[in-house]
Write a structure and sequence with these properties.
With about 240 residues, this protein is α/β, with parallel strands linked by helices. The protein has a domain of about 160 residues: P-loop containing nucleotide triphosphate hydrolases (Rossmann fold, 3-Layer(aba) Sandwich). Helices cover about 35% and strands about 25% of the residues. The chain has a six-stranded mixed β-sheet, sandwiched between helices. Strands 2-1-4-5 form a four-stranded antiparallel β-sheet, with helices on one face. A hairpin with a 6-residue loop joins strand 1 and strand 2.
C-alpha cells in the first residue's frame, strides 16, 4: 500500500546554467510528486528538461533553487558525500549502455554494489544469485558480457541495480540499444518488478510504446511540465 507522503517531490525547482545573456533555465519552476510504488515515464524533446530532472531525482545533481524532497529529506541541500550515501542506499540505476565490466562474470557484475558496501563474499554471492534469478538469468551467472545477448546484458544491469533492494529505480532509456522483441521483454520485466516487488520506477524514454508500460507519463517542454497523464486501466 502506498503512503500518503510522496516518495519524492519537486517544489518550485529551477536549474540554471550560465549567466547573463548565456543563461539557460533547464528547469523553470517545476512542481511534481511521485508516490512509492508508482511507475512513471518521463518524456520530452532534447533540451526539454527531462534529463536534468532525472539527474536531480537520482541525486546526481541539485536544483539551483527550490526543494527536492526525497523520503522527507531536502536532498538538494545535502553535500556531495551525503547525497552519495542517500543514492547508494536507496536508488538503483539502469542506463541505455549496460555499463558492465567486460572481463567480469554476470554474478561478479551484480555483486559490485555490494562490494562497495562491504558485504561479505558469501552473502554477496547469494544476493547476486537471487537478483539474477529475479531477472530470469539462472544458469548464466558465470557468463561474461561478451557471452550474453544485448537483452541478457541489460538483465544483468537490472539485477545489479536491484541487488541492494533500492526504494527507487531510475532507468534512463533502458531499451535504447535493444530490438523490438528484447524491448518488450525488458519492459515486461520492469513492470513485474514494479507490480510484484512494489519497486518505484522513474524512466526516461523517447519511445511512446515504451512509455505505455508506465502507469503515468510526465512530458517536459522548455524546462516545464507540459502534461502529466495517468494511464486509464482497462475495465
Amino acid at each position: 500500500m502506498r503512503a500518503d507522503i510522496p516518495l519524492l517531490a519537486f517544489r518550485d525547482v529551477w536549474k540554471t546554467y550560465g549567466a547573463g545573456e548565456a543563461q539557460v533555465h533547464a528547469l523553470a519552476g517545476v512542481d511534481l510528486s511521485i508516490r512509492q510504488g508508482e511507475f512513471v515515464a518521463i518524456m520530452g524533446p532534447s533540451g526539454s528538461g527531462k534529463s536534468t530532472s532525472m539527474n536531480i531525482i537520482g541525486c546526481l545533481d541539485t536544483p539551483t533553487r527550490g526543494v527536492y524532497d526525497f523520503l522527507g529529506v531536502d536532498a538538494g541541500a545535502l553535500d556531495r558525500s551525503r547525497r552519495a550515501m542517500l543514492r547508494n542506499r536507496y536508488i538503483g540505476f539502469v542506463f541505455q549502455g549496460y555499463n558492465l565490466l567486460p572481463r567480469t562474470t554476470a554474478a561478479e557484475n551484480v555483486e559490485l554494489p555490494l562490494v562497495y558496501r562491504g558485504v561479505a563474499a558469501r552473502e554477496r554471492r547469494a544476493l547476486a544469485m537471487e537478483a539474477l534469478a529475479q531477472v530470469g538469468l539462472e544458469g548464466r551467472e558465470s557468463h561474461t558480457p561478451a557471452e550474453l545477448s544485448g537483452g541478457q546484458q541489460q538483465r544483468v544491469a537490472i539485477a545489479r541495480a536491484i541487488v541492494t533492494r533500492p526504494t527507487l529505480l531510475v532507468a534512463d532509456e533502458p531499451t535504447g540499444n535493444l530490438d523490438t522483441a528484447r524491448t518488450h521483454e525488458i519492459m515486461d520485466l520492469l513492470t513485474n518488478l514494479n507490480v510484484a516487488n512494489g519497486l518505484t520506477i522513474v524512466m526516461v524514454t523517447h519511445e511512446a510504446d515504451v512509455a505505455e508500460y508506465a502507469e503515468r507519463t510526465i512530458s517536459f517542454l522548455d524546462g516545464k511540465i507540459a502534461s502529466d497523464t495517468a494511464r486509464l486501466e482497462a475495465a
